[in-house]
Every structure is written in C-alpha cells, then in structure tokens.
Amino acid sequence: MTETAYTTLHGVGESARRPDAALKVTGEFSYASDLWLDGMVWGVTLRSPHPSAWIRSIDVGPALKIAGVLTVLTHEDVPGAKFYGLEHKDQPVLAIDQVRYQGEPVALVAADHPETARRAAAAIVVEYELREAITDPRKSQNFVRHQPVRRGDTFEAEVVVTGEYEVGMQDQAFLGPESGLAVPAEDGGVDLYIATQWLHVDRDQLAPCLGLPQDKVRLTLSGVGGAFGAREDLSMQAHACMLALRLNRPVKIVYGREESFFGHVHRHPAWMRYEHGATRDGRLVYVKADILLDGGAYCSSSPAVVGNAASLGAGPYEVPNVRVDATGVYTNNPPCGAMRGFGAVQACYAYESQMDRLAEACGLSPVEIRVRNAVSQGSRLITGQLIDSPAPLADMLRDLEAMPLPSGSSEDLRSMPGGVSQTTHGESVRRGVGYGVGIKNICFSEGFDDFSTARVRAELVGGEPHVTVHTAAAEVGQGLVTLQAQIARTELGIADVRVAAADTTVGSAGSSSASRQSYVTGGAVKAACEAVRERFNGLPAREALEKFGPIEETREYRHRPTYPMDPLTGQGDSHTQLALCVHRAVVDVDVELGLVKVVELAAVQDVGRILNPQALEGQIHGGSAQGLGLALMEEIQIRDGLLLNPSFTDYLIPTILDMPPMTMKILENPDPAAPYGLRGAGEPPTLSSTPAIAAAVRAATGLRLTRVPIRPEDIALFDKGIDKGVSDGKLA
User: Cα separation of 31 and 181, whole Å?
Assistant: First the structure.
C-alpha cells in the first residue's frame, strides 16, 4: 500500500481520527453509567466495614420493610457456584461466613430508586465478630506464589551497593466508575451490558455462579471510562445479573467514587531489598533481590504479577549471576491485581535506584553506567531467554542524553513548586536531573493460550464496498476501534469500514491489558482481512463483491508460544515480546517546603512500527503521567486494613498543572515476529518515568529517598546534613 493510499484510506501509519472523539469532547458519548432501559431498577451492594471478621448473622428484615425495596440477596441466594476468580476461584460472590477485607460484598439490594436502595442496604443488620487482621505482608505466611530466578554462582565483586525500597499502593484512578446493566432474557439467560476489559473471561466466571450455560450469559461492551487493569476482575457483574434474574427485570448498578475504590483491585505495594555487585569500571557481576508483593485478600492476577517481577527483576541489563526471589502473599488488605506495568513497575523502581547508586560508587554518570550494562539483540534475560529482536538500549540512552535540557527557572510563579498556590517565590528551589530505564513484557506470558479472534465481512452497501470488523476486544480508551478500522482499510483497500460493538457472539479477543491488543487483535484482523482479500481472486473489491456477493472470514491469531518459568530456577522462554522505554526527568524542588515541580519529561521508546502516531503519543504521555503520579503523589492509604482516602479529594492524581511538557523520540525497529513489526507501547512509559523522577528529586536534594511516592515530609523534615533515608539502603 502506498503512502498516498494510506492518506486516502486513513490506514496503518496515519493518525486516523477516532470515531468516538467528537462525542467524548462534546459529552455525548454513552458510558456504561449512562445505560438506561424502561422498567429497570437499581442495585446496591452492602459491604463489610471490617478487614477481618466472622459473620454471625445477617438480618435483611429491616431493609425489606422500606417502601420501594424489591429484594435483598445474600450468599444463600447465589444460584450456582459461590466462588469465582481470574486464576483461582477463591473469591466469594457474596461473603459467606467471614469477610477478609474492608469493602467485601455481603448483601445486595434492588429498589425502584438508587437512594431507596442505598437506605435499604444501610438498614441491613450484620453481626460481626472481629478478629485480628493480617495487614503487614512481611508477617504473612500465606503465599500466593514464590518465584525464584537462579543463574550463575559468583556473588562477590569489587563494588557492592545495597538498598531497601518500598512502593506504595497505587490506584488505577479511572474516571468512569464501575457500572453495568443486566437484562433478563426470554430463554432464561441474561444479557449484560458492561464496562470491562475481558468479555469472555467475565462470562466464563459469571456463568457457573449464575447456574447457567455459557451460551445463556451474553455480554456486550458498553462505554468504558478508563481501565488500566482494574476492570480485569469482576466487580458488580454477578450482582447485577443475580438481581435481574431474581426479579425478571433489568437491573442497573453504578458505583460512586468511594465504592469504586473498594470495588476494584489496586497495584501491589512492594517491599524490596537489592544488592548489586560490579567491577570497578561499573560492569555488573551479580544482582541479588528479594521482592515482596502484597496481594491482599484474594488471588486475582497476583501469580502473574509475581512472575513478571521475578523475570524482569534485574532490568534490561547484562547480568551473568542472579539470585532473585519474588513472593506474593495474602493479607487482609484490599485485593491487588492488574495495573499498568503489572509487577515490572515495582521492580523497575528498585533496580533503577540501584543503578544510580552503582554509578555513584563507580564514579560514573547515570547514563554511562546504564550504557555499559545495556542489553542488546542477542543478549539474554536473567531467565535465560534470548532477546531475538532489536533492543538498541545503549543508542536510546545516548539519544536521550543528547536531548537539550530545559532552560533555567522562570520568573512565572506557575512554573515553580507550589507557585500556583503562592506558597513560594523560589527562595529554596533546587533543580535535579534523573534517568530511568524500563523493560516490559508484551502479551501474556508463561504458556498462557493467548489469542484473539476477528470476523471480517466485505459487502456492497448502496453499491459501494463496505467492511464490518467484529471482535470481542475491549476498547478502553486506547484507540483500538480506530486501529482495527485502519488495518482493514490497509489490507482491503476499502475506505468504508465499521467496527461492530464488542460482544461475546464472536470468539474471544482476550484482555485489553499487557499492551497486547494491537499485537493479537491487530494480528487477527489482519489475518481475517487477508483471507477476505484472497477470495477476491485478484479482482478489485467492487468487482469481486458484485461477482461473488458478501464475503466473510473469521480468523484466530496466536503469537509464538511461551513457556512457564522453571519453579526452582526461573529459567525459560516465558515472554512473547519485550519493549524498552527510557526517561529523563528534570525537576525543581523546594527543599524547605518539600514540594516538587516536574519541569520536563523526555522519553525515547522503540515501538517497532508506528501504527497511529497520535494515538501512540497519547499512550506515552498517559503512561508517563501515571508514573509521575506514583513517584510523587498517588497512594492508597491503608491503616490496620482500613482504606483512609477513597476519594479524589484525598487520593491525588496528576492534573494538567502537574504534567510537564514532554519531548519524545520514537524509534521503529520492527520485531519480525509481530504483525507489522509492532511492539506494544502502552505500559513501558509507566515503568521508567517513576524512577527517573525519583532520581531527579534525589539529585536536587541529596537525599536517598527509598520510597515512592515521595512525600513533602520526606524532603523537608530532616536534620541538616542527615539523610533520613540512609537506613533504608547504604552504599557498601
């Protein structure tokens, strides 16, 4: 396809306009929370106020006496299996005899008005017998998974640096709360319109709980207001369906913001101890690491998160000797699961902090220490897996270092830390520069049967060629609907393309996570289009469709196989594809007030092949913003198992005033194993931005700062000349 054709067709390589763009800008786009059906009623969930307790009794009588209340359900009313889960079916649909975290669902109410339903839920009387909650993961003996990685036997070196690091619990903080509409069907089944990331796995978990065959549980994707991993697990899906089937009426459930914090998984907080050994000139000899991840009350996707943290635990560096142990444990804290970066984020913060310490100990610059140890094509990960596609990390670092630095501080108060609120005039502001490197696996790993299905139909509509693309891939804001149409236009040469609503009437597309949809669903659409084009028999599209009539083909696309990590050594080809991103952060820090202003973020990322330049830029900006949030402000506060800040008043996320200008360089080194040579791009910026910002704050303050997010008191409240962070990690 020529560049002229791309421009005409808005195909692969062009910044094709998103079909939902204007609707979202004008407020006309329908999100799942906007769903409405005549005769529908409202569902509400009663949740446990305690992180750990026995349930001694539940009295629903007071709720049923309230006018407008239609039904109240408990675990006794679950029509089928009482447990579900992504990897292990350990989570009850409704609490049975105990609660294991604050916010666990205990009962359901349906009423003719949402306020009535909320009042009724509050009227339910639950007798709890409190018990001691396990909230410190370092004291938990209940393992989700332990994954070691062992390589080599030399653990002595001329230069040794050690450190202990902590990553707080981050929330995905999507703007659209959990919501959905369940509609009972005449065949005894249910139709669920839902904001989710994985339609078929939702269905596979729901059907047994509802006591229905899979073909009677039909899901259609509704407008999704962001996801970032939190919609991989079930939230209100089973609850809405139970109420709808019980009442034989449509039931809508919409969480408020506070309930949303209780109703989905979060990023695993982590405690990590690292030891790096190197030669005097900075060549890595060994890495030791202990990584502890708090999985909370239920399994969710913690086993996969542990696997990622272990396999990527030393970063994109040549390390001949490795002893890594990654462990996930159960506690009575809120469940943790998928979030952008998925285990690799936590490890990246620690190993990048270590690389800065090693640079200091060896008398090298932060860039030089990384260049000397950078992987490249032909290198092996610590799991022994060969990097068999381009990985030009050293060049990326040199490109980043060569980018011009921003000018000095402006007189404009808005450019200073705290300047917008008139807290400073720059009296105690210092500037710092820091670097971060991240490596992320793309697609699902460790032998998971990872595939996507696409159905493509070409036909004449009004005498003109028209294409319909149908997949179950969840559009969660990343631009996947746009990309599917671009691929169809490119492969078939037909401009008029419609992407049908994602639902379970077509084969699974897997989850919109792991930066995988462009790869696997893009591959499936491409394959289905190629099959349709083959049936054109070399004729132009219009002529072929006039001669043969509508042509429809369905194809599954699978990437190359992966394999489980060895349970004792961690060795194995566990990943499909790897992606690299490097960041440089420039920050201004008011060292008296403890306030930080990120002045600039610069990034270099290799994406294999650019499919949509504007969408790609948005992914890098968005991932960098979430990394900034983790570095400086975002943290769910948990005390004794209780969530203290379930609101956007108290859980802080970056705004337009916090996000700096970004300079980017995008490299295209195609991966020969991937469709179009693409490389998943959504997650890597989230990894490297956090340690880069933390490093820049350290450079400005001289403090060790071994925990993110960095709080103002970590910077401001210290004795002159004494580093409060030294106890968390020292140069050997």
Answer: 11
Q: In the chain, helix, strand, coil percent, each to 5?
A: 30, 25, 45
Query: 194: helix, coil or strand?
Result: strand
pLDDT at 732 over 70: no
Burial of 647 (0-12, 13-18, 19+ CB in 10 A): exposed
* Per-residue three-class SS string for 654-669: CCCCCCCCEEEEEECC
**Residue 125 has which token pair?**
């009387």
Q: How far is CA 286 from CA 279, 437, 685, in A?
A: 10, 18, 26
Tell me, what DSSP letter sits at residue 136?
A: -
Angle, in degrees to the nearest 10, between helices 344-362 and 366-373: 110
Query: Is omega for the bond preceding 709 within 30 degrees of 0, making it cis?
Result: yes
Only one residue has tokens 């065959």, namely 213
Task: Locate 657 and state its tokens.
Answer: 């005033």
What CA–CA distance (Å, rounded) separates 677 from 673?
7
SS3 for 224-268 is: CCCCCCCCCCCCCHHHHHHHHHHHCCCEEEECCHHHHHHHCCECC
- CA nearest to 716, candidates 505, 279, 520, 423: 423
Strand order in the sheet with 53-59: 98-99, 53-59, 125-130
pTM summary value: 0.96
CA 143 to chain centre: 23
CB distance 704 to 357 below 8 Å: no
Q: Is 557 helix (H, G, I), strand (E, B) or coil?
A: strand
Cis-peptide into 184, omega within 30 deg: no
pLDDT digits (tens, 9 = 90+) for 342-388: 999 999 999 999 999 999 999 999 999 999 999 999 999 999 999 99
Dist. CA 467–CA 455, nearest whole Å: 10
- 3 state DSSP class of 563: coil
Q: Cα separation of 287 and 708, whole Å?
A: 22
**Structure tokens given for 550:** 């509508």
Supply the Cα-derived Rg of the chain in whole angstroms: 26
Map tokens 């703007």 to a residue: 175
How far from the centroid of its chain's Cα atoms is residue 350's Cα? 19
The span from the CA of 597 to the CA of 419, in Å, is: 9
Q: CA 138: distance to chain centroid?
A: 25
Sheet architecture: strand order including 551-558 = 497-499, 464-470, 451-461, 551-558
Quickly tell me which residue has 């960098």 as its tokens: 624
Q: Which of 391, 406, 289 is nearest to 348 (CA)?
A: 289
Query: DSSP string covering 105-124, please?
Result: EEEEEEESSHHHHHHHHHH-
In this structure, are residues 351 and 313 in contact, taking their beta carbons and an 8 Å threshold? yes
Q: What are the φ/ψ torsions at residue 717 (nearest 5 degrees)? A: -95, 75
**Which amino acid, 172?**
Q
Mention every residue, 6+ apart, whose C-beta is less than 8 A from residue 117. Answer: 42, 43, 44, 69, 109, 110, 111
Residue 189 has pLDDT above 80, yes or no: yes
Q: Which amino acid is at 195?
A: A
If we measure between CA atoms, which residue out of 730, 440, 425, 726 comes closest to residue 575? 440
Lookup result for tokens 């299905």 = 453
pLDDT of residue 409: 66
| Per-residue pLDDT, 424 | 76
> What tokens were used for 133?
């909650």
